[in-house]
């Protein structure tokens, strides 16, 4: 099984920073969306709608770097970067980072780090959704919502994670494999 | 305080507060966090920002739960204060610790392999270049009449190619400067781990346990 070298560590960190910079642009989007939805009591919806974007570093790192732990490390480093660049949630971001990272990592674990295709990304989207939702279930009081609304949030979250972590990631990795820059095991 | 232990204690407290529902402890942690921040001479603008933004999110979350949930008012207070615990406690770490200090401490005190410490630092220091690169990729596409959005695969594709090139170059540069993965290293600057740090660490955790399980509201 592949091991971590300093090159991969730099790569996963640079990737995480790149994603961070790109998502920084969405910061205002989140606030505006949250503010627009807040009066109707739908603010958490903004969270669930955009979660996929924030969780993208995981599947992307897992897919590009193909070393066990890449997805987790990608998300974790993303949160470290966010923490030091003045993300508001400070060290608590690290917990979310690990939760999201483990969530997307599980998808790769389930395929034994052997298959890198649609199935992996769909599984990863599924596990990311479930793990992060479980975390919000306690942390953000999602367990106190009426069942119907809770399900709406869960489905919204899955769609978001699937679109960004699944479809968009697949499109990106398609471009990458056409450019022959993914490792040889990539051709699934 | 030692950066590694400081980070550990804050993450542990944040984790524990997420699963318990004692608002008195939350308020106490907020007050302690505020005191630490003020002692560390936090800029007023930063503090204001750290207060207004969570105020919005916490209020919106509580409002949402009031409309669409069946939470008790006790739980709503817990949730509201919890958001501020995250923000203030988190800020006590970021406002008082530099990334370099933390990586050094993680390497020396927490025995993190040096390849992670230096790999991370190498990449982290590229931050200004990375930001410029995203702007460049966008501008280059604009010249050809393409608008790259957050959901455009091309944006990520180009950025990943750059990341691959840079990481190889940086790793090569480190090797040519004599960096060897896994080789024993000496430290130009040692980060001390004093008994006092352990006292703060254990003391804070014990205090939080006492507060959480004393039967406070």
Verbal overview:
Chain A: This is Thiamin-related ABC transporter permease 1. Chain A: Keywords: Membrane, Transmembrane, Transmembrane helix. The complex is a heterodimer of chains A (188) and B (217). Chain A has 188 residues and is mainly alpha-helical. Helices cover 74% and strands 0% of the residues of chain A. The two termini of chain A are 18 Å apart. The mean pLDDT of chain A is 85. By secondary structure, chain B is mainly α. Chain B is 75% helix and 0% strand. Chain B contains 9 helices and no strands. Chain B is flat and about 60 Å long. Chains A and B meet through helix 1, helix 2, helix 3, helix 5 and helix 6 of A and helix 1, helix 3, helix 4, helix 6 and helix 7 of B.
Any chance you could write out the topology, listing elements then pairs?
The complex is a heterodimer of chains A (188) and B (217).
Chain A: H1 6-24, H2 26-37, H3 43-54, H4 57-65, H5 70-84, H6 92-110, H7 118-139, H8 147-178
Chain B: H1 3-19, H2 23-39, H3 44-68, H4 73-94, H5 99-108, H6 114-124, H7 127-143, H8 153-176, H9 195-213
Helix pairs in contact in B: 1-4, 1-9, 2-4, 3-4, 5-6, 7-8
Key traits:
heterodimer; A: 188 residues; mainly alpha; 8 helices; 74% helix; 0% strand; globular; B: 75% helix; flat
Compact description:
By secondary structure, chain A is mostly helical.
- State the domain count of chain A: 1
Q: Can you give the helix content of chain A as a percent range?
A: over 70%
* Mean pLDDT figure of chain A: 85
> What Rg of chain A do the Cα atoms give?
16 Å
The most extensive contact between chains is:
A-B, 62 and 73 residues
What is the averaged pLDDT score of chain B?
90
Helix/strand order of chain A, N-terminal first = HHHHHHHH
Secondary structure tally, helices of chain B:
9
The biggest sheet of chain A, with number of strands, parallel, antiparallel or mixed sense and barrel status, is: none
Q: Tally the beta strands of chain A.
A: 0
Major sheet details of chain B = none
Q: What's the quaternary structure here?
A: heterodimer
SSE string of chain B: HHHHHHHHH
Could you say which overall geometry of chain A the principal axes of the C-alpha atoms support? Answer: globular
Distance between the termini of chain A: 18 Å
Basic shape of chain B: flat
Number of strands of chain B: 0
Subcellular location (chain B): Membrane
Main location (chain B): membrane
Transmembrane segments (chain B): 20-40, 47-65, 71-89, 198-216
Pfam families (chain B): CbiQ
